[in-house]
Design a protein that fits this description.
Blueprint (H helix, E strand, L loop, with lengths): L21 H4 L3 E5 L5 E8 L3 E7 L2 E7 L8 E7 L3 E2 L3 H7 L12 E13 L2 E10 L2 E16 L5 E12 L18 E15 L5
Protein backbone atom coordinates (compact mmCIF):
# COMPACT_ATOMS: atom_id res chain seq x y z
CA UNK A 1 0.00 0.00 0.00
CA UNK A 2 1.56 3.25 -1.02
CA UNK A 3 1.38 6.73 -2.35
CA UNK A 4 1.68 5.59 -5.89
CA UNK A 5 3.27 7.63 -8.62
CA UNK A 6 1.39 10.41 -10.33
CA UNK A 7 1.52 10.21 -14.13
CA UNK A 8 4.02 12.45 -15.83
CA UNK A 9 2.73 15.27 -18.02
CA UNK A 10 5.99 15.44 -20.00
CA UNK A 11 5.78 15.34 -23.79
CA UNK A 12 7.19 12.25 -25.53
CA UNK A 13 10.31 14.16 -26.54
CA UNK A 14 11.07 15.32 -22.99
CA UNK A 15 13.49 13.42 -20.73
CA UNK A 16 11.91 10.39 -19.05
CA UNK A 17 11.55 11.99 -15.62
CA UNK A 18 8.58 12.26 -13.29
CA UNK A 19 8.06 15.39 -11.21
CA UNK A 20 7.81 14.65 -7.51
CA UNK A 21 4.77 16.07 -5.73
CA UNK A 22 6.22 17.71 -2.56
CA UNK A 23 3.04 16.95 -0.63
CA UNK A 24 3.40 13.24 -1.37
CA UNK A 25 7.15 13.20 -0.84
CA UNK A 26 6.60 14.65 2.65
CA UNK A 27 4.57 11.56 3.59
CA UNK A 28 7.48 9.21 2.93
CA UNK A 29 8.23 7.02 5.92
CA UNK A 30 7.26 3.98 7.98
CA UNK A 31 3.70 3.65 9.27
CA UNK A 32 1.90 1.31 11.66
CA UNK A 33 -1.72 0.44 10.95
CA UNK A 34 -3.94 1.67 13.79
CA UNK A 35 -6.36 -1.21 14.51
CA UNK A 36 -8.57 1.00 16.67
CA UNK A 37 -9.39 3.18 13.65
CA UNK A 38 -9.15 0.58 10.88
CA UNK A 39 -11.39 -2.25 9.76
CA UNK A 40 -10.90 -5.36 7.65
CA UNK A 41 -14.15 -7.02 6.73
CA UNK A 42 -16.10 -9.02 4.19
CA UNK A 43 -19.52 -9.38 2.61
CA UNK A 44 -20.91 -12.72 1.36
CA UNK A 45 -24.29 -13.75 -0.05
CA UNK A 46 -26.27 -16.00 2.32
CA UNK A 47 -29.05 -18.39 1.25
CA UNK A 48 -29.09 -16.72 -2.17
CA UNK A 49 -31.20 -13.80 -0.95
CA UNK A 50 -29.31 -11.63 1.51
CA UNK A 51 -25.81 -10.51 2.47
CA UNK A 52 -23.91 -11.35 5.63
CA UNK A 53 -21.27 -8.86 6.74
CA UNK A 54 -18.41 -9.58 9.07
CA UNK A 55 -15.10 -8.22 10.21
CA UNK A 56 -11.89 -9.27 11.93
CA UNK A 57 -11.39 -7.39 15.17
CA UNK A 58 -7.71 -8.22 15.68
CA UNK A 59 -5.16 -7.29 13.04
CA UNK A 60 -1.85 -5.52 12.74
CA UNK A 61 0.28 -4.29 9.92
CA UNK A 62 2.80 -1.83 8.58
CA UNK A 63 3.18 0.42 5.56
CA UNK A 64 6.29 1.74 3.93
CA UNK A 65 5.40 4.82 1.91
CA UNK A 66 7.77 6.42 -0.57
CA UNK A 67 6.12 9.43 -2.14
CA UNK A 68 9.19 10.28 -4.20
CA UNK A 69 9.73 6.76 -5.59
CA UNK A 70 6.49 4.81 -5.08
CA UNK A 71 7.81 1.48 -6.31
CA UNK A 72 9.69 1.28 -3.00
CA UNK A 73 6.41 1.32 -1.06
CA UNK A 74 5.07 -1.81 0.61
CA UNK A 75 2.39 -3.18 2.91
CA UNK A 76 2.18 -6.08 5.35
CA UNK A 77 -0.98 -7.13 7.20
CA UNK A 78 -1.64 -10.00 9.64
CA UNK A 79 -5.22 -10.86 10.61
CA UNK A 80 -6.18 -13.09 13.54
CA UNK A 81 -8.82 -15.49 12.24
CA UNK A 82 -10.34 -16.21 15.67
CA UNK A 83 -11.36 -12.54 15.90
CA UNK A 84 -14.01 -12.92 13.17
CA UNK A 85 -17.33 -11.29 14.09
CA UNK A 86 -20.55 -11.56 12.08
CA UNK A 87 -22.83 -10.69 14.98
CA UNK A 88 -23.90 -14.31 15.62
CA UNK A 89 -21.71 -16.40 17.92
CA UNK A 90 -22.74 -19.77 16.46
CA UNK A 91 -21.92 -18.60 12.94
CA UNK A 92 -18.56 -17.23 14.07
CA UNK A 93 -17.83 -20.58 15.70
CA UNK A 94 -18.59 -22.35 12.44
CA UNK A 95 -16.31 -20.00 10.50
CA UNK A 96 -13.30 -20.70 12.72
CA UNK A 97 -13.93 -24.46 12.61
CA UNK A 98 -12.40 -26.96 10.22
CA UNK A 99 -15.31 -26.46 7.80
CA UNK A 100 -13.97 -23.01 6.97
CA UNK A 101 -10.83 -21.30 8.31
CA UNK A 102 -9.64 -24.01 10.74
CA UNK A 103 -8.29 -21.25 13.01
CA UNK A 104 -6.73 -23.68 15.48
CA UNK A 105 -4.38 -24.99 12.79
CA UNK A 106 -4.12 -21.79 10.74
CA UNK A 107 -4.59 -18.88 13.17
CA UNK A 108 -3.43 -16.02 10.92
CA UNK A 109 -4.37 -14.71 7.48
CA UNK A 110 -1.65 -12.60 5.84
CA UNK A 111 -1.19 -10.16 2.97
CA UNK A 112 2.20 -9.10 1.62
CA UNK A 113 2.31 -6.56 -1.20
CA UNK A 114 4.41 -7.09 -4.33
CA UNK A 115 3.40 -4.23 -6.66
CA UNK A 116 1.50 -0.93 -6.75
CA UNK A 117 0.13 1.25 -9.53
CA UNK A 118 -1.92 4.41 -10.01
CA UNK A 119 -5.28 4.11 -11.75
CA UNK A 120 -5.92 7.84 -11.89
CA UNK A 121 -6.39 10.66 -9.40
CA UNK A 122 -6.36 9.23 -5.87
CA UNK A 123 -7.30 5.72 -7.03
CA UNK A 124 -4.68 2.99 -6.90
CA UNK A 125 -4.27 -0.75 -7.12
CA UNK A 126 -2.01 -2.79 -4.90
CA UNK A 127 -1.16 -6.38 -5.73
CA UNK A 128 0.24 -8.92 -3.33
CA UNK A 129 0.09 -12.42 -1.89
CA UNK A 130 -2.90 -13.36 0.27
CA UNK A 131 -2.42 -16.45 2.43
CA UNK A 132 -5.43 -18.19 3.97
CA UNK A 133 -4.86 -21.55 5.65
CA UNK A 134 -2.02 -23.13 3.67
CA UNK A 135 -2.90 -21.53 0.32
CA UNK A 136 -1.17 -18.42 -1.07
CA UNK A 137 -2.59 -16.72 -4.14
CA UNK A 138 -2.23 -13.26 -5.72
CA UNK A 139 -4.75 -10.58 -4.78
CA UNK A 140 -5.30 -7.16 -6.34
CA UNK A 141 -6.96 -4.53 -4.12
CA UNK A 142 -8.39 -1.33 -5.58
CA UNK A 143 -7.81 1.55 -3.18
CA UNK A 144 -8.59 5.21 -2.74
CA UNK A 145 -6.14 7.44 -0.88
CA UNK A 146 -8.29 9.46 1.53
CA UNK A 147 -5.56 11.92 2.45
CA UNK A 148 -3.32 12.73 5.39
CA UNK A 149 -3.70 14.71 8.61
CA UNK A 150 -2.16 15.37 12.01
CA UNK A 151 -4.51 14.19 14.74
CA UNK A 152 -5.15 15.84 18.13
CA UNK A 153 -2.31 13.82 19.68
CA UNK A 154 0.21 15.01 17.11
CA UNK A 155 0.28 11.76 15.13
CA UNK A 156 0.73 12.02 11.38
CA UNK A 157 -1.89 9.81 9.75
CA UNK A 158 -2.73 8.56 6.28
CA UNK A 159 -5.96 6.87 5.24
CA UNK A 160 -6.96 4.41 2.54
CA UNK A 161 -10.14 2.52 1.74
CA UNK A 162 -10.60 -0.23 -0.78
CA UNK A 163 -12.09 -3.55 -1.77
CA UNK A 164 -11.47 -6.73 -3.71
CA UNK A 165 -13.61 -9.63 -4.89
CA UNK A 166 -12.36 -13.18 -4.43
CA UNK A 167 -13.65 -16.73 -4.81
CA UNK A 168 -13.25 -18.38 -1.43
CA UNK A 169 -12.83 -21.77 -3.11
CA UNK A 170 -9.51 -20.53 -4.53
CA UNK A 171 -8.21 -20.62 -0.95
CA UNK A 172 -9.72 -23.99 -0.09
CA UNK A 173 -12.83 -22.63 1.66
CA UNK A 174 -15.33 -24.93 -0.04
CA UNK A 175 -17.90 -25.87 2.63
CA UNK A 176 -21.51 -25.41 1.56
CA UNK A 177 -25.03 -26.74 1.95
CA UNK A 178 -27.69 -27.18 -0.70
CA UNK A 179 -31.02 -25.36 -0.29
CA UNK A 180 -34.33 -27.14 -0.81
CA UNK A 181 -35.39 -24.39 -3.21
CA UNK A 182 -32.18 -24.67 -5.20
CA UNK A 183 -28.85 -22.95 -4.88
CA UNK A 184 -26.50 -23.08 -1.92
CA UNK A 185 -26.24 -21.62 1.56
CA UNK A 186 -23.05 -19.57 1.05
CA UNK A 187 -21.86 -17.94 -2.18
CA UNK A 188 -18.39 -18.64 -3.49
CA UNK A 189 -17.83 -14.95 -4.22
CA UNK A 190 -16.73 -12.84 -1.25
CA UNK A 191 -16.11 -9.09 -1.21
CA UNK A 192 -13.23 -7.98 1.01
CA UNK A 193 -13.39 -4.47 2.46
CA UNK A 194 -10.50 -2.40 3.83
CA UNK A 195 -10.61 0.88 5.73
CA UNK A 196 -7.11 1.70 6.89
CA UNK A 197 -5.73 4.44 9.12
CA UNK A 198 -1.97 4.35 9.69
CA UNK A 199 0.30 6.37 11.97
CA UNK A 200 3.72 7.54 10.89
CA UNK A 201 6.62 6.35 13.01
CA UNK A 202 8.91 8.93 14.59
CA UNK A 203 12.23 9.36 12.75
CA UNK A 204 15.09 7.33 14.16
CA UNK A 205 17.57 9.41 16.17
Amino acid sequence: MALFNRKSTATPSAPATVAVDPALAALTGEYAIDPAHSSIGFTVRHAMVTNVRGSFGEHEGSLTLDGADPKNSAASIDVKIASVDTGIADRDGHLVSGDFFDAEKFPVMTFRSTQAEQLGGDKYRITGDLTIKDVTRPLAIDLEFNGSATDVYGNERVGFEGSADILRSDWGLTWNAALETGGVMVSDKVKLNFDISAIKAAPQA
